[in-house]
Write a sequence for this structure.
């Protein structure tokens, strides 16, 4: 029987319903904004990508959702998870720890962040179940843990269950982390560059396991990556983040073939994605991501944008183009454009 089948909790998993509702999420350190006004909804069973260059605020957004921000960083705004009555922002650690690992679980880039080096991996997975009381006793939890280790493709599960993390390869460790994250059939799995630290030879395999684990449980997923090709295969929707803000969002197909925000255009142009390539691709985005606090006022992308004008010194409003879709850009690409225009064309305006 699958882990989803043995689900102990009564909360059903229908096709409708919001699993995660984030409204006006800010992350600040002292006076400085690191994540600003992030608003989005993830529905039951949806897989949503979060993309953007390094330093855009993706990881901090994920950590804020999990109540795992580092010391000194503060989240404000609202984070609500289906089935949890209270707002998770500002929830005390006791309330948060009832939700974390049960309703919402996370897979980090580096597996050792999530593993206890001094505990056998089978015990760690069993412990995750016992903490949230999703299995009646230690024996049941342990056999469910071995079954999960098998589901995530680990060889000789009873034997692997007795191993310590350091006795496993990086790919195997990340599979243990996945088992740990799936242990209580979360409604939402948050993945932050889950395969980036792994050997390229096992990346696709681990990615498949993550997607399968989520599909089997009809769980929703927020998937953070800088790899646009992965988003195209794994996610239905995508949100583009830059300067701590979501600058564009929409169905993957629409955003990747007809990006509206100039930043999204640049990201796609700099990638190897063939979907935008029928009229020649963009040059890479000029310059680099500023350090936190060094983004320009108004449009955060304007100092790197070939299309920027004086208007861009004011913050572009969000233009909704559909449900969960829109962009924040004063000079968006034409909606009818099948492919981005070149950056040099823009400069002549
Ligand atoms: N603990 C921290 N204190 C201060 N600034 C931080 C801290 N963690 C991250 N930042 C800054 O916040 C910005 C966003 O970081 P992050 O969310 O890790 O970006 P991403 O995951 O998109 O690469 C970066 O400029 C980063 O340097
Ligand atoms: Mg990151």
């Amino acid at each position: 029987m699958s882990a989803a089948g043995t689900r102990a909790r009564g909360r059903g998993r229908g096709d409708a319903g919001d699993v995660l509702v984030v409204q006006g999420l800010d992350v600040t350190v002292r006076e400085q904004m690191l994540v600003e006004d992030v608003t989005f909804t993830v529905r039951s069973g949806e897989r949503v990508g979060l993309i953007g260059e390094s330093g855009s605020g993706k990881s901090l957004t994920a950590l804020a959702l999990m109540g795992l921000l580092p010391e000194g960083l503060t989240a404000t705004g609202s984070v609500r998870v289906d089935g949890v009555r209270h707002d998770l922002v500002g929830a005390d650690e006791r309330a948060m720890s009832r939700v974390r690992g049960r309703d919402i679980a996370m897979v980090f880039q580096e597996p050792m962040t999530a593993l206890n080096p001094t505990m056998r991996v089978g015990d760690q997975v069993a412990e995750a179940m016992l903490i949230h009381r999703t299995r009646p006793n230690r024996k049941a939890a342990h056999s469910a843990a071995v079954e999960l280790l098998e589901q995530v493709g680990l060889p000789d599960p009873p034997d692997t269950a007795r191993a310590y993390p350091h006795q496993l390869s990086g790919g195997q460790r990340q599979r243990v982390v996945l088992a740990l994250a799936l242990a209580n059939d979360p409604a939402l799995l948050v993945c932050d560059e889950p395969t980036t630290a792994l050997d390229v030879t096992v990346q696709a395999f681990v990615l498949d396991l993550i997607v399968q684990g989520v599909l089997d449980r009809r769980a929703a997923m927020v998937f953070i990556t800088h790899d646009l090709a992965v988003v195209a295969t794994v996610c239905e929707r995508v949100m583009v983040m830059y300067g701590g803000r979501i600058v564009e969002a929409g169905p993957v197909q629409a955003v990747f073939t007809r990006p509206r925000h100039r930043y999204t255009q640049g990201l796609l142009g700099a990638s190897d994605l063939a979907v935008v390539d029928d009229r020649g691709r963009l040059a890479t985005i000029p310059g680099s991501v500023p350090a936190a606090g060094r983004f320009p006022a108004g449009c955060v992308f304007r100092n790197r944008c070939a299309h920027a004008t004086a208007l861009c010194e004011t913050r572009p409003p969000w233009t909704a183009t559909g449900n969960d879709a829109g962009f924040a850009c004063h000079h968006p690409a034409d909606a009818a454009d099948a492919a981005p225009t070149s950056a040099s064309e823009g400069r002549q305006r």
Confidence is low (pLDDT under 50) at residues 1-12, 274-279, 338-349. The chain has two domains: 18-234, 237-347. The chain is about 30% helix and 20% strand. The radius of gyration is 21 Å.
